[in-house]
Design goal:
Blueprint: H1 2-15, E1 28-31, H2 36-47, E2 54-57, H3 91-103, E3 107-112, E4 116-119, E5 124-125, E6 134-135, H4 169-174, E7 180-182, H5 188-204, E8 208-211, H6 219-227, E9 244-247, E10 267-269, H7 271-282, E11 307-309, H8 333-345, E12 350-355, E13 363-364, E14 367-368, H9 405-416, E15 422-427, E16 432-437, E17 441-446, E18 452-457, E19 463-466, E20 473-474, E21 477-478, E22 482-485, E23 490-495, E24 503-507
Parallel strand pairs: 1-2, 1-12, 2-3, 3-8, 8-9, 9-10, 10-11, 11-12
Antiparallel strand pairs: 4-7, 5-6, 13-14, 15-16, 16-17, 17-24, 18-23, 19-22, 20-21
Helix pairs in contact: 2-3, 5-6, 7-8, 8-9
This protein binds ligand QV4 and calcium ion.
Residues 74, 77-78, 113, 119-121, 162, 177-180, 212-213, 215, 248, 250, 315, 320-322 line the site of ligand QV4.
Biased composition (Polar residues): 379-388
Family: Belongs to the glycosyl hydrolase 13 family.
GO molecular function: alpha-amylase activity; metal ion binding
């Protein structure tokens, strides 16, 4: 009897940890603020062919619209209803995107904002992405509908009604996060509306959810919502597949709420990962790359099977959320590429690559005055589509980190080495390290200020391999560096500290 209960609990607990990524694929990319039509095209022309496993999309439901040209990106974190028209496009465009991405093997994960509606001072009117009328002051959202009795204010005990002290779990869950009207998810009615919204998306073919602001919701309420979700659409997944759940909980330590309370419900974002990796690659606080020999649980991260990891996200790349100045973003391309490559080469966690838009960064006393700026837009406020340049980079302010050769090639590396153990570690007791993934891949980093010149055991079969960082294998030759692995698995690596990208990676499919 006991074992049966254990198996049942374990089975249930882990059901929503599986991202259901298609065979041979591993990584997710967050196409922050992209329009649905552009994501559909990107799945077909780039993500599918290059082995990406999935896309995290911006919130697809109706959100507040602030006056053009004041159109901050964060409007999308202020829901007005669960109608599916947003700054990224219409419901038809959303459905078309989901279908087209699924058809080329790329999953869609929806950013689900279910803790709150818009801010308390959101006003009254039809300034919303589908034009639905609402009154934030009266907490009236007739297109759901939610009314003033569907919010938490009666439970919140702070003077302002906002969260004032992150040391008090009750107010973190029951009060307003930066004045956002806090939904009473303990009510069956509210749970039902949220569950229906997510089920519409599951039936359309999404593979799961990034659940926003989970720290601000009680685990029991979330369990009820997740429990009511449909199985994934059997047009693309086997019967009985549960939607993937990954929960945004920022836990860098020192607060009353920890990720532990959420890991049995689904995966959880591991924010320590990017904060630490940024510190290591910046060589701050005395950190050195050689200390990452036991990267993962050894650094106090949650267990591998529970984690979603990333170098930066849409918040901390602009100073919102957590991680501070240590986070490495596209603004610092050299350490950013190295950190993303390290993440993609390392077996820990489900990995997510950030794909950003550029804004007029203007930092005064450590704070970016333009941290609100929305995506590249036309003069009428509508989001620009993503033009692709002849060299495959993106134009019009879209950064497209995921298309940078070094990053795309490391996404492929991760696919090639999937399931292989972390092996053949080497370091120079400083910032030069190397490690392999069984006999399928090997990567070497030089983040010191002097050259690396070493013969290392790669664990790879003998032969000539193309480095996939300085170039790649193309038409039977290498466009970048070439690495000769001997019959004994040893290879010589020379990486100048002045190289544009001071790291080298080879894998089974980059062999000539
Ligand atoms: C402001 C004041 C309030 C004041 C209010 C008065 O801060 O004290 O009461 O005005 O009207 C925006 C503004 C914010 C404003 C608020 C309400 O930035 O200044 O309040 O709107 O009008 C994003 C942005 C927020 C933005 C929010 C809603 O980051 O700046 O707030 O969207 O538009 C914590 C959480 C974590 C969270 C992280 C950022 O634990 O869950 O902060 N991360 C997620 C998302 C994030 C999003 C939210 C949660 C909220 O990743 O993008 O916040 O959905 O660590
Ligand atoms: Ca809440």
């Amino acid at each position: 009897m006991k074992w049966f209960i254990l198996v049942a609990l374990f089975g249930l607990g882990l059901a929503q940890h599986n991202p259901h990524i298609k065979k041979g694929r591993t990584a997710i990319v967050h196409l922050f603020e992209w329009r649905w039509a552009d994501i559909a095209a990107e799945c077909e022309r780039y993500l599918g062919p290059n082995g990406f496993g999935g896309v995290q999309i911006s919130p697809p439901n109706e959100h507040i619209m602030l006056d053009n040209p004041w159109r901050p990106w964060w409007m999308r974190y202020q829901p007005i209803s669960y109608n599916l028209c947003s700054r990224s496009g219409s419901e038809d465009e959303l459905r078309d995107m989901i279908t087209r991405c699924n058809n080329v093997g790329v999953n869609i994960y929806v950013d689900a904002v279910i803790n709150h509606m818009c801010g308390a001072s959101g006003g009254e009117g039809t300034h919303s992405s589908c034009g639905s009328w609402f009154d934030a002051g009266k907490k009236d959202f007739p297109s759901v509908p939610f009314s003033n009795c569907d919010f938490n204010d009666n439970k919140c005990r702070t003077g302002s009604g906002n969260i004032e002290n992150y040391g008090d779990a009750n107010q973190v869950r029951d009060c307003r996060l930066v004045s956002l009207l806090d939904l009473a998810l303990e009510k069956d009615y509210v749970r039902g509306k949220v569950t229906d919204f997510l089920n519409v998306l599951i039936d359309m073919g999404v593979a799961g959810f990034r659940v926003d602001a989970c720290k601000h919701m009680w685990p029991g309420d979330l369990a009820a919502v997740y429990g009511g979700l449909h199985n994934l659409n059997t047009k693309w997944w086997s019967a009985g597949s549960r939607p993937f759940i990954f929960q945004e909980v920022i836990d860098l330590g020192g607060e009353s709420i920890t990720t532990k309370e959420y890991v049995n419900l689904g995966r959880v974002t591991e924010f320590k990962y990017g904060a630490k990796l940024g510190t290591v690659f910046r060589k701050w606080n005395g950190e050195k790359l050689c200390y990452t020999r036991n990267w993962g649980e050894g650094w106090g991260f949650m267990s591998d099977g529970n984690a979603v990891v990333f170098v930066d996200n849409h918040d901390n790349q602009r100073g919102h959320g957590a991680g501070g100045a240590a986070i490495v973003t596209f603004w610092d391309p050299r350490p950013h590429k190295m950190a993303v490559a390290y993440m993609l080469a390392h077996p820990y966690g489900v990995t997510r690559v950030m794909s950003s838009f550029r804004w007029n960064r203007h930092i005064v006393n450590g704070k970016d005055q333009n941290d609100w700026m929305g995506p590249p837009s036309h003069s009428d406020g509508s989001t620009k589509s993503v033009p692709i340049n002849p060299d495959q980079t993106c134009g019009d302010g879209w950064v497209c980190e995921h298309r940078w050769r070094q990053i795309t090639n490391m996404v492929k590396f991760r696919n090639v080495v999937d399931g292989q153990p972390h092996s053949n570690w080497w370091d120079n007791q400083s910032n030069q390290v190397a490690f392999g993934r069984g006999n399928r891949g090997f990567i070497v980093f030089n983040n010191d200020d002097w050259d690396l010149d070493e013969t290392l055991n790669t664990g790879m079969p003998g032969g000539t391999y193309c480095d996939v960082i300085s170039g790649q294998k193309e038409g039977g030759r290498c466009t970048g560096k070439q690495i000769q692995v001997g019959g004994d698995g040893r290879a010589h690596f020379k990486i100048s500290s002045r190289d544009e990208d001071p790291f080298v990676a080879i894998h089974a499919e980059s062999k000539l």
